Amino acid sequence: MHKDNEKMKSEIIRRSGVNPSKCMRCGKCSGTCPAYDEMEYHPHQFVYMVESGDIEPLLSSESLYKCLSCFACVDRCPRGVEPAKLVEAVRLSVIRQQGANHLTANDIPEMLDPDLPQQAIVSAFRKYTK
Amino acid sequence: MQRIGVFVCWCGTNIAGTVDVAAVSEALKSEPGVVFSTNYQYMCSQAGQDIIKDAVKEHNLTGIVVCSCSPRMHEATFRKTAAAAGLNPYMVEIANIREQCSWVHKDMLTGTEKAIILGKAAVAKVNLNTPLTPGESPVTKRALVIGGGIAGIQTALDIADAGFPVDIVEKNPTIGGKMAQLDKTFPTLDCAACILTPKMVDVAQHENIRIFSYSEVEEIGGFVGNFDVKIKKKARFVKEDICTGCGACVEKCPMKKIPNEFNLGMDNRRAVYIPFAQAVPKVATIDPSACNMLKSGKCGICSKVCTAGAIDYKQKDELIEEKYGAIVVATGFNPISMDKFDEFAYNQSRDVITSLEFERLTNAAGPTQGKLLRPSDLEHPHTIVFVQCVGSRCDACAEKGKEYCSKICCMYTAKHAMLVRDKYPDTEVYVFYIDVRTPGKNFDEFYRRAVEEYGVRYIKGMVGKITPEGDKLKVQASDLLADKQLHIDADLVVLAAAIEPDKTARPLATMLTASMDTNDFFTEAHPKLRPVESPTAGVFLSGTCQGPKDIPETVSQASAAAAKVIGLLVKDKLTGNPCIASPNELMCNGCSSCERVCPYGAITYIDKEFPQPDRTVAVRRVAQVNPAVCQGCGACTVACMSGAMDLRGFMSSQIIAEVDAICK
Amino acid sequence: MKVSYFPGCTLKNKAVILDTYARKCAEVLGVTLEEIENWQCCGGVFTTSKDEVATKLSSVRALKYAQDRNQPLVSVCSACHNVIKQTNHAIQTDAEFSDKVNRYIAPESPYTGDTQVYHYLELLRDVVGFDKVKEKVVNPLGGRKIAPYYGCLLLRPNTVMQMDDPENPQIFEDLIRALGGEPVAYSMRNECCGGYVTMENPEFAKSKSKAVTDNATAFGAECIVTACPLCKYNLDKNGNSVPVVYFTELLAEALGVKEDETNA
Amino acid sequence: MQVNEYRPLIVAFCCNWCSYAGADLAGNNRLNYPADVKIIRVPCSCRVNPMFILRAFQRGADGVIICGCHPGDCHYTSGNYYTRRRMALLFSMLDYLGIERERTRLEWVSAAEGAKFAATMNDFAETVAALGENKRLEDLRCKK
């Protein structure tokens, strides 16, 4: 594995607390994922790509913002791999960089629906912004 | 003081090439106890052995040290020589100056020096040797087989055919086990009943076999060759010897809505029942939790219709005590509960079933007479999804499922899928798999046939969620090779549930002092070389109680266990290894440390009377080692805090003497 | 009995009725909800990354507040409960995180994760008891067919939430039975409604919510009950026309403290 | 005999079923290791009482090595697990007494690992030789 990839991999593993080598490639995470069709890289690919250090393509993928954080993959994984935590760790690698926020306050007004609960806005900010 | 003879072997040049054998025999002459020392070209040869025998007589030797090759090579030879010379064979010690000296050192000086030290250590040990005699115990020539499935049946038949009486204890009203519930068997597709039921009849008719059905083992005492077992024969409220199995009582019983265990609750039986047509013994059983007569005294119809007069509402549990020389465990398996896997909607829809339920559903004697109809509306299912590895191969930390591969699921699912496509070619069949594991004779060919000839659609991926809606089961799954999420509207879903050891296995293991792994499978004495023996002497393992297995493997193991049992029962007396633990009762403080570390359950405690100096008698709790069970590992000797426990042949004083000799 | 109560941002705004009825019903059931002074927004979602500290401080402050008063911490909103419970679990199991948090907040005595965290539903089940709730019912729901909707936040991740069997939960069902309703068993009750992604991608959220409501009505649901304002929003806006209510509304109705009912 | 060059005195306890057979195999394959190593045969590594090791040090041994079957392969199923626990305690006590940790070792050598046996003994003898004589635990009264 390339040194940079190795470094990025260990950073993601440390931050997420996930051990991707536990994966047995059953694909149950992708079988259960409600956002599967929205994603370019699917949960099982996230796990595999982190395991093999191929994280670069994930950084620029929209898939990071499609995960609903519903934790269905986490609870149903027979191997206890917790793919959603990997998605989150990779997403943080991106939005923690300067100017890399996926959502800014200026974007909000046009998205706003009068009935939208505050909870949605707060959550979206947590997920998309640093 | 011993009178020790030292015999240094040249082994041609093997030893003499690097060790000055004459110097060694000379040096050892002056060791304490040594009265004779010599060297010879080949000590193991007849001439060499004669030198030893002559020396024993001439010098009145009481102990022998042979400086030669490894004791793993010729210890037995020299022990026989000693015995032939009238000496106790355990008065011989070997100093390994070939494998562990001459062959690994190049320099004559250092080689000789080390050989002398090794010789001194052996002399020091022999000085403390005592004559040992192996213990003997009688053998009860009768075997007990616990569990009457195909494993128990095969073991019992093999032992009985060899001429020994065998008892089978089966907790259900009939023998037959899981195999009796199966439809066809892979990879040959012969019908399970056709090959099993003749064996069941053989068991019933064999003069050497007794069947205790509807019975459980209550208590086990004793040890190899001499087990005392109490068996509880549960009251079945039918006199077994009188009942003809005609079924008149079953027909007339008014309690018709009792879930039928044999068909896994997919249809009903009566309160009085015979599990299936070929049951052995073919005798009715009254279910006390369902029978009105037994619950409230109101009914009694079965008694009226029984022309043989076999019904006995007053029957009580019966306790049978019997002695056995060997015990075979064949307690089998069950599919795990699907309660924790409700993402597959097992509890929400009757059309989500386990593979064992599927077996009953396709069985001609099953609830649908073998027509494949789905349980909810008895319609023919047109799309069937099989899900593999449900609860198998899970992470150790996962809250549900088992860590191991259940081994049989890949093959029976291929069989199910093939049979469906064969009988109902209009049915779409999907199999979701993680890996297809088919190591076995004609297994992979069988799976390939399912795919290539029968058009079963194998998809690499896993089902993530099943949503019953209307009369469909919406299956959401991944197809990893196509990189797609699939949505299939299925009519029937079959879950390949992991298998686990029967729940009765753990309490039984406790009674037997046999060890189990964390999954409650029985542990074998050695994973490679003693796979059908439990570490507890006289206890043998047959079938899935030891690990997941298919039928051919189960039958092989069953016969292997039988061979081991026969090998034990043909002996009139058991000769033990004399190098076993023995406690010094005067030093034992009764702490039980040794009992806890013994892997064989060889140590027990008794209250024993000891005369005191003041002529009173004190009762103390002291350890006792069963010589027939102890294997001589020595774990207890180190655990013993008072130093009371020692190991014959490897006594602490002997080992310390060796240490001292080496460190001099 | 007195408990520390964490209402959360949405309950002060779009989901006022979730809050009001929770308070009223608690009174009837003999529980006093003491609102935490100066509580701060939980953040809506728990960031699972181990190196994320600042976003979890508000939860820790609330937990510490409850601990100082020796009270359990109760919230009604699924999101708040999820964030607070996961934060508490992180404090209990991740020593490095716990250390960092305590350095930030610098309380007089460090917070060590001792506060008992309850969702209001758990309070009803484990502290009050559903049999007690049943006793207090004055307007039974008359066998109304009600579909409980758990969503994700109440149940997952199960290793932390430990509320119920994550695939076959019964807590809502038992409450509905206690109130005289008939729970509808349907499989989508623990699938995602589309969550916060509804802001950015309403069409996608719609397909998720629709699947949930369709599955519920297919089994004859007359209404859907939930504990989460975002679930209610998504199901209301995107689902079919089946009414979606907060569980506290049903509870208030059955206990006879719902406004229009009490006036009637 | 050469007396000027220091050679360590090493006692090796080998279990009968794996390690002793491994040592025999090293011999069969003529794999050299120093003659400083003297092997004592025990039925199982769990027969090794910590007292034996202390005795060896007291009598002037410079290093003691215990060899058993690999975990899971014990002839008596669990003996080597007992050894592992007991030695963990003993080694930590020796450490406390100021005996260099390198003077004691626990190794798993199977009956097939003749090469490993020889390599282990070479390495251990070298390590102990580098440490020099065991002075701290040696009982001078035991010296002749």
What is the spatial order of strands in the main beta sheet of chain C? 2-1-3-4
Biggest sheet statistics of chain D = 4 strands, parallel
Question: How many DSSP-defined strands of chain D?
Answer: 4
From the 3D coordinates, which CATH architecture of the largest domain in chain C would you assign?
A: 3-Layer(aba) Sandwich
Largest interface: B-D, 49 and 47 residues
First CA to last CA of chain D: what distance? 19 Å
Write down the CATH topology of chain D.
Answer: Rossmann fold
Question: What does this entry look like structurally?
Answer:
The complex is a heterotetramer of chains A (130), B (664), C (264) and D (144). Chain A has helices at 3-16, 28-32, 43-51, 56-59, 72-76, 83-95, 108-111, 118-128. Chain A is mainly alpha-helical and 130 residues long. Chain A folds into 2 domains: 3-97, Fumarate Reductase Iron-sulfur Protein, Chain B, domain 2, CATH 1.10.1060; 103-130, no CATH class. Chain A is globular and about 45 Å long. Chain B is of the alpha/beta class and 664 residues long. Chain B has 5 domains: 4-126, 3-Layer(aba) Sandwich (Rossmann fold), CATH 3.40.50; 136-234 and 317-331 and 502-575, FAD/NAD(P)-binding domain (3-Layer(bba) Sandwich), CATH 3.50.50; 235-316, 2-Layer Sandwich (Alpha-Beta Plaits), CATH 3.30.70.20; 333-500, 3-Layer(bba) Sandwich (FAD/NAD(P)-binding domain); 581-648, 2-Layer Sandwich (Alpha-Beta Plaits). Chain B is 28% helix and 25% strand. Chain B contains 18 helices and 34 strands. In chain B, the strands form 12 sheets. Chain B has a 5-stranded parallel beta sheet with strand order 10-7-6-18-29, with helices on one face. Chain B has a 5-stranded parallel beta sheet with strand order 20-27-21-22-23. In chain B, helix 5 runs antiparallel to helix 18. Chain D is of the alpha/beta class. Chain D has one domain (10-142): Rossmann fold (3-Layer(aba) Sandwich). Chain D has helices at 19-28, 50-58, 79-97, 114-131; strands spanning 10-15, 37-42, 63-68, 104-108. In chain D, strands 2-1-3-4 form a 4-stranded parallel beta sheet, sandwiched between helices. In chain D, helix 1 packs across helix 4. At the B-D interface, helix 4, helix 5, helix 17 and helix 18 of B face helix 1, strand 2, helix 2 and helix 3 of D.
